[in-house]
Amino acid sequence: MADSTHNHSENGSVATLTKQDFASGQETRWCPGCGDYAVLAAVQELLPELGLPLERIVFVTGIGCAGRFAYYMNTYGVHGIHGRAPAFATGLAVSRPDLLVWAVGGDGDMLSIGGNHLIHALRRNMPIKILVLNNQVYGLTKGQTSPTTQLGKITKSTPFGSEDQPFNPLALALGAGASFVARTVDRDRRHVTEVLRAAAAHPGAAFVEIYQNCPIFNDEAYAVLTDKDTKDAHQIRLEHGQPIRFGAERERGVAQQPDGGLAIVEVADVGEDALLVHDAHCANPTHAFALAHLSHSVSEPTPIGVFRAVERPVHGESSQAELRAANETVEPAELDALLHAGATWTV
Amino acid sequence: MAMSRTVDKDRIVIRIAGDSGDGMQLAGGRFTDATAVFGNDLATTPSYPAEVRAPTGTVRGVSAFQIHFASRDVLTPGDRPDVLVAMNPAALKANVAELEIDCTIVVNDDAFNKRNLTKAGYDSNPLEDGSLAGFRVHRLPMTSMTVKATESVEGVSSRDAARAKNLFALGVLSWMYGRPVEVTEEWIERKFAKRGAILTANLAAFYAGYNFAETTELLDVQYRVRPAALRSGTYRNVDGTTATALGLIAASVRSGLPLFFATYPITPASELLHELARQRGFGVRVIQAEDEIGAANMALGAAFGGQLGVTATSGPGMDLKAETIGLAVALELPMVIIDVQRAGPSTGMPTKPESSDLLMALYGRHGESPLPLIAAATPAHCFDAALEAVRLAVDYRTPVILLSDAFLANSSEPWLIPRIEDLPQIDPRFAREPNLDGDFLPYLRDERLARPWAVPGTSGLAHRIGGLEKEDGTGNISYEPLNHARMTSLRAEKVGGIARDIPPLEVDHEDGAELLVLGWGSSYGPIKAGVRRVRERGGKVASAHLFHLNPLPANTGEVLRSYCRVLVAETNMGQLAQILRAEFLIDAESFTKLEGEPLLVAELEHEILERL
């Protein structure tokens, strides 16, 4: 790599960056009330904290409403093609370990057309922060069913109700071997920031599902999770090392059942000691997988937060030592020796 | 010692064929090295079974290696062999139909037993039923002679011994054609240095073959093919795959851009993956992607990061990469896509060559998405073609498609190793500063119409680009009608302008020639050789070859119009001819062939003579 690619600002100037420094001049063109605004604001607010010059950050996006994300960040950015952001980001992140690379897409982009790239980026533990803005519907193409659309849901492409079982994105990510898996919800801005902060700090691939409201095609799909009246009954906040409890009086909780599965229990019935203590760092993914399956729609109590955060080798780390450093020039004599390898003869 | 006579020959084509487990490629490779060191010019091509493990002894399981060597310039691996070595009945059966009367056949007599004859589908033994009348047949008991030669070697089983029969055959051929034995001996010593008994057995088998040929009365003729007058310099033998890999690495070194190669396994391009995966010492990073689309995006992502992003595939993979290549056209980033063509459509014949992806490479993307297109002409030329693809990609900030094919990838020829200082220097010209009044405009173009390449990490130049149509200069999203028209022509003009930066079409003209034979890709050798044969018979004909398919050399129209007739030879339904007709309004004639085989010299000779 040429030196110029590393000539980032001195730390002195980094410290003074603000949220506004990360907003590009482009006019944001999401629909009024779109959950994407909240996510964009949370990201722009978080980045100055990381202490990185903005030129060391790259946003890679796919197609769909969320694909516009790259244009609104005053960092380097690429708005690629449908579903391929994790692959593009892989090529970038692996060849430029000095960068912080984010891949942003919607549920259709990441889980349907781009599902293959997503699972492989996770299995490789590529150093990419992957944000899936899940609104359970295709927005930009105007209202068709997506791979997270609830069974029976009427959309433009399913006038008689969706017949397809939706993906459980977190379970899918865990199945792919993701080392960091989290869920948050657009309307809880502080929670979004908290989760993104943890994702940014994670050394490998971070998978974050963000429940995001589409006011046009699937309005209020997640409202019960954040509305004042229903929030307490529906939202389970996961905190590492804490017993899993929720409810207005924290009167309910999650406990392991004899069959290994999890169930919602009344604390009064089982006692606090019977509650499951959340362990995001547990090497065995079974705990996170069971939590991912605790609810299949927000009509049931639904966990949010960091489900899993474990360290495992990041792609490229092991080969880095053998790979000639990018800034170390190959001498002409070395190339000459390579061209002359094997049997040669002189005329 | 038996008396043998020596016969001088200008050129010989030998094909050695046996079961895929018989080590035919190894024996062929050794014969090739000895031939190269001896000083003949040569070309080789292998032929493998389509299945990984075809049933032994069957025609489907036959593996063959062909070498053409001569005392003059060799242009192809030869149409039909002068000599066939058949290690079993299946090898004879698979090849005998291609032999011309007078051809010499050397068989491993031991293998022609009832069981093997049945497996090969012979009702009677062709060595005895008269069906080989007209051929010069030599029956050598190769297996038993090999076993006898190696039985005294301690630690070698009779199974191991029998497996060395390919080296016995190599010994026989080495004597018949006066090849230097030291080259093979040294190779065997190096290769089996750590396996004492096997080393001894292999050497014994090789010399047993050589001595047997020299002393037996079964072989009465020794052939002499004198060294060719080659350009002075140091040579090595390369196949198209190796040459491509070396070209990419050389381009990486000469540009200072680390090579990033992402690909998905596909025949016949996978060998390039294997070749490059070993080169971490040259900073080559290789990723075996989850699919073809992923591979293309990874390469493009690396290009955005300031590296030399390359992906390789064959036809079906090109279909899948098309959208990403279109993105690279829009992003105007350097990227190289290598298509090792094979017979199609669909899965087609994966191991068989065909040059039928030309129109796809040129036009197989939605919208107006022009890009430079280069085609390699010979195995060694793959080196230059890879370097040229990188040069154009970097200089013009564009994806470049490099077309090769299954024939070029696997065939080999001597390569005059270039001097490093003679290789082109490629300057990435990374953008380091704002380019307009303190601002950075990612689509502000230079005199070549190339845009600045500003890579992440460069402060002050952070910018966003994407597949949506961009405003000229700023690169901001734009749906403005006239801007789209302007951007479309700018992209086309940029690629078209490359015509000023490539050599003119060179013609091998002959006074009085009214017919021009034009080719592209791997038709180079057969056309050149066909033209040479016609000229040797007194015919007047000219030839030319296109290395750049888009843009075409600036003088292409002028050259074509200066001949009464233009014959385009290609292994497709006439794709280049169609382009030339559309582009230059000339009545190009086509010679096409779609048999999953390269063009033959004799076919070209015939086609040319028909038109004189």
List the helices and strands and how they pair.
The complex is a heterodimer of chains A (347) and B (612).
Chain A: H1 11-14, H2 36-46, E1 57-61, H3 69-72, E2 76-79, H4 85-95, E3 100-106, H5 107-113, H6 115-124, E4 128-134, H7 169-175, E5 180-185, H8 189-201, E6 206-211, H9 223-226, H10 231-234, E7 235-237, E8 245-246, E9 252-256, E10 262-266, H11 267-270, H12 286-292, E11 302-309, H13 317-320, H14 332-339, E12 344-346
Parallel strand pairs in A: 1-2, 1-3, 3-4, 4-6, 5-6, 7-11
Antiparallel strand pairs in A: 5-11, 8-9, 9-10
Helix pairs in contact in A: 2-8, 5-6
Chain B: E1 5-8, E2 11-19, H1 24-38, E3 41-47, E4 62-70, E5 83-86, H2 89-96, E6 104-108, H3 114-120, E7 136-140, H4 142-150, H5 158-163, H6 165-176, H7 181-191, H8 196-215, E8 221-224, E9 234-239, H9 240-255, E10 259-263, H10 270-277, E11 285-288, H11 292-304, E12 308-313, H12 315-331, E13 335-341, H13 358-363, E14 373-375, H14 381-396, E15 399-405, H15 406-410, E16 412-416, E17 464-466, H16 481-496, E18 507-508, E19 515-520, H17 524-536, E20 542-546, E21 548-550, H18 556-561, E22 565-570, H19 575-584, E23 589-592, H20 601-610
Parallel strand pairs in B: 1-8, 2-5, 5-6, 6-7, 10-11, 10-12, 12-13, 13-15, 14-15, 19-20, 19-22, 22-23
Antiparallel strand pairs in B: 2-4, 3-4, 9-16, 14-21, 18-20
Helix pairs in contact in B: 1-6, 1-7, 2-3, 4-8, 6-8, 7-8, 9-10, 9-14, 11-12, 17-20
List keywords for this structure.
heterodimer, A: 347 residues, alpha/beta, Rossmann fold, 8-stranded mixed beta sheet, 3-stranded antiparallel beta sheet, 14 helices, 12 strands, B: 612 residues, Pyruvate-ferredoxin Oxidoreductase, domain 3, 4 domains, 6-stranded mixed beta sheet, 23 strands, globular
Rounded mean pLDDT of chain B is 95
How much of the sequence of chain A is in beta strands?
Answer: 15-25%
Can you give the helix content of chain A as a percent range? 25-40%
Largest sheet of chain B: 7 strands, mixed
Radius of gyration of chain B: 27 Å
CATH topological fold name of the largest domain in chain B: Pyruvate-ferredoxin Oxidoreductase, domain 3
Quickly count the helices of chain A.
Answer: 14
**CATH second-level architecture of the largest domain in chain B:** 3-Layer(aba) Sandwich
Structural class by secondary-structure content of chain B: alpha/beta
Structural class of chain A comes to alpha/beta
Tell how many strands the DSSP assignment of chain A holds: 12
List the helices and strands of chain A in order. HHEHEHEHHEHEHEHHEEEEHHEHHE
Give, in spatial order, the strands making up the sheet with the most strands of chain B: 11-10-12-13-15-14-21
List how many beta strands of chain B DSSP finds: 23
Radius of gyration of chain A: 23 Å
* Unreliable residue stretches of chain B: none
What's the domain count of chain B?
Answer: 4
Q: What is the largest interface, and how many residues per chain? A: A-B, 72 and 75 residues
What's the tally of helices of chain B? 20
What is the subunit arrangement here? heterodimer
